[in-house]
């Protein structure tokens, strides 16, 4: 028997290659190009000054002395008077600054109300039966008359039903809360109202149809003093904000209206002709808003619908705009940039007013209000259920206060007497009043409107009788609240505390 | 004249002083560190109060006379130093 050894040896095979059927070498389509500029022409030249002169000026010192002599001659004995009392006055000032004599000393001149009470509950039976809501409130400049606009905000459809504006005079003895003193019929829903700040009988209103009307309540025949009518200048979308601003003519006020079409228009009142004439206008478009970071998430229509407007009592040139998309913008009346919005036959060139964009919120901004006690502060409220305290100096808000959970904030207003207090109206039917001087960020007082869960749409403090607060509800009623003393009496250090809050601007 | 300005500056530098007004015997302001509207208001109102205070003191005792008047309010203190030809108003907020 034998074994067959199988010997393993290395073997090499030829490599196999396949040609690609679709790829070709790119070498074959190569071209080369070159270029060169034409030769440059250069030339040299020299220059030298032939004539040189020196000159100098100096003021005369003597004139100053002559002036001093004149004025001291006007007040003989002034120097002696001051020399005599200076020491005593300075001694008293120093003693006073160190004194603790008056620490904690408070005087009660007036009986302070301890509680918040509802003194009136106004309603219009016709509006209630039709289920209309109170969309806007305004107090007259005298503080006695309150005007209420009835309309519809819960209807998604284009609204064409007739609505009203009602006024009640709260100081009249025969006040009937169920019967307004004056009812004005309006062709479409009224979305905003504003009383004239000096003439107690004029009211400006913005309608759902885009028209702006000025009513004169002292007229018996036809209360309409002036209106825009439907012209090329009118808003095409509902007007959500109406304000009186210093006008084009000296001593008179114009009406400023803003709507969801992105237009902010200023109208001159021509009472004789019964028309509102467009004096100047602004159009807001996305491309012309100075954004801090590109917010290109939202697409569609480049115009920015305006839902909130606030005028600054400190700076007559600037105004704040809040939009449907959550933007809060600082704008200027004097802006000269022409708007990029397509002209639509308007009689004036529309301008782009936006100068600065604050940090946006996630839903429409319903309300903005500038503080009457500090030039840089304003408060905003929108659909995120928060009230933001902003400074004009920075984009991020200084404070965010939770007003309500899972509900919208429809209106925010600063108190006219207490620098640290503001009120916010919620979609759950509550009015929350916040006091920034307290440690806690929760509301100082909550007022239940007792509307059965219907939202509170508007809120206004009485400018004259500053302890009164009016709130208009979704069930068509208006509550007039009398606030307690602790919400209306200004404390001694409040302005300083507000100043401190405003200075917390990040560097 | 520079001495008058210096005296006013020394008073202005004291702690908490918000404003100084010097008015003549008729209540017309001649020097002030506040704005025009406030100055006119202060000078006019305080002149009336000064006259009333002085006559009150002299009615109680004809040999007596007013030397200094201080009004303390919730927000600040107004000090008035009167004289034959002029009076000085200093507004101070002592808690500042």
UniProtKB/TrEMBL annotation, chain B:
Q: Which SUPFAM superfamilies match?
A: Roadblock/LC7 domain (SSF103196)
Which InterPro entries does this entry report, sorted A to Z? DYNLRB1/2 (IPR016561), Roadblock/LAMTOR2_dom (IPR004942)
Question: Looking at the UniProt record for this protein, which Gene Ontology cellular component terms does it annotate, in alphabetical order?
Answer: cytoplasm; cytoplasmic dynein complex; microtubule
The keyword NAD appears for this protein = no
**Domain Roadblock/LAMTOR2 positions:** 4-92
Any one biological process term the GO annotation gives: microtubule-based movement
Q: Which Pfam family name is an example for this entry?
A: Robl_LC7
Q: Where in the cell is it found?
A: Cytoplasm, Cytoskeleton
Q: Which Gene3D superfamilies match?
A: Dynein light chain 2a, cytoplasmic
Task: Supply the alphabetized keyword list.
Answer: Cytoplasm, Cytoskeleton, Dynein, Microtubule, Motor protein, Transport
What Gene Ontology molecular-function terms does this entry list? dynein intermediate chain binding
Its function, per the record, reads:
Acts as one of several non-catalytic accessory components of the cytoplasmic dynein 1 complex that are thought to be involved in linking dynein to cargos and to adapter proteins that regulate dynein function. Cytoplasmic dynein 1 acts as a motor for the intracellular retrograde motility of vesicles and organelles along microtubules.
Which protein family is it in?
Belongs to the GAMAD family.
Indicate what this protein is called per its UniProt record.
Dynein light chain roadblock
Q: Origin organism of this chain?
A: Alosa alosa
Its ancestry begins with: Eukaryota, Metazoa, Chordata, Craniata, Vertebrata
């Amino acid at each position: 028997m034998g074994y067959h050894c199988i010997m393993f040896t290395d073997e090499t095979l030829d490599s196999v290659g396949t040609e690609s059927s679709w790829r070709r070498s790119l070498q074959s389509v190569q071209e080369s190009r070159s270029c060169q500029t034409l030769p440059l022409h250069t030339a040299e030249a020299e220059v030298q000054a032939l004539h040189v002169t020196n000159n100098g000026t100096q003021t005369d010192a003597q004139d100053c002395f002559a002036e001093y002599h004149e004025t001291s001659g006007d007040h003989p004995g002034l120097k002696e008077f001051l020399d005599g009392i200076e020491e005593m006055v300075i001694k008293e000032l120093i003693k006073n600054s160190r004194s603790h004599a008056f620490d904690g000393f408070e005087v009660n001149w007036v009986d302070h109300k301890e509680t918040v009470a509802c003194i009136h509950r106004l309603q219009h039976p016709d509006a209630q039966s039709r289920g209309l809501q109170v969309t806007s409130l305004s107090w007259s400049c005298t503080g006695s008359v309150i005007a209420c606009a009835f309309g519809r905000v819960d209807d998604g459809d284009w609204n064409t039903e007739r609505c009203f504006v009602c006024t009640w005079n709260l100081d009249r003895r025969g006040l009937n809360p169920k019967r307004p003193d004056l009812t004005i019929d309006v062709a479409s829903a009224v979305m905003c109202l504003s009383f004239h700040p000096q003439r107690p009988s004029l009211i400006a209103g913005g309608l759902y149809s885009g028209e702006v009307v000025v009513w004169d309540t002292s007229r018996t025949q036809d209360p309409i003093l002036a209106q825009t009518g439907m012209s090329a200048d009118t808003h095409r979308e509902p007007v959500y904000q109406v304000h009186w601003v210093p006008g084009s003519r000296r001593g008179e006020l114009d009406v400023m209206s803003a709507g969801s079409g992105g237009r902010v228009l200023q109208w001159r009142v021509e009472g004789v002709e019964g028309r509102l004439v467009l004096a100047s206008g602004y159009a807001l478009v996305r491309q012309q808003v100075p954004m801090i970071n590109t917010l290109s998430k939202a697409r569609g229509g480049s115009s920015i619908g305006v839902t909130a407007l606030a005028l600054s009592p400190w700076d007559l040139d600037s105004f704040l705009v809040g939009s449907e998309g959550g933007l809060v913008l600082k704008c200027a009346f004097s802006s000269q940039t022409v708007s990029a919005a397509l002209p639509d036959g308007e009689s004036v060139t529309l301008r782009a007013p936006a100068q600065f964009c604050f940090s946006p919120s996630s839903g429409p901004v319903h309300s903005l209000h500038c503080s009457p006690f500090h030039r840089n502060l304003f408060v905003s409220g929108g659909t995120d259920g928060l009230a933001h305290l902003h400074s004009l100096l920075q984009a991020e808000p200084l404070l965010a206060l939770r007003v309500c959970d899972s509900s919208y904030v429809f209106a925010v207003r600063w108190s006219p007497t207490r620098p640290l207090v503001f009120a916010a109206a919620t979609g759950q039917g509550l009015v929350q009043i916040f006091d920034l001087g307290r440690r806690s960020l929760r509301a100082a007082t909550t007022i239940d409107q007792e509307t059965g869960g219907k939202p509170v749409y508007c809120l206004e403090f009485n400018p004259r009788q500053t302890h009164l607060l009016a709130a208009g509800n979704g069930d068509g009623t208006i509550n007039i609240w009398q606030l307690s003393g602790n919400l209306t009496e200004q404390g001694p250090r409040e302005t300083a505390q507000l100043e401190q809050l405003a200075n917390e601007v990040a560097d | 004249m520079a001495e008058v300005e210096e005296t006013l500056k020394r008073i202005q530098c004291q702690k908490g002083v918000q404003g100084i007004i010097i008015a003549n015997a008729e209540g017309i302001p001649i020097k002030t560190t506040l704005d025009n509207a406030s100055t006119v208001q202060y000078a006019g109102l305080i002149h009336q109060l000064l006259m009333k205070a002085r006559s009150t003191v002299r009615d109680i005792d004809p040999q007596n006379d007013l030397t200094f008047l201080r009004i303390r309010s919730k927000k600040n203190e107004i000090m008035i130093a009167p004289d034959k030809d002029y009076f000085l108003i200093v507004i101070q907020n002592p808690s500042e």
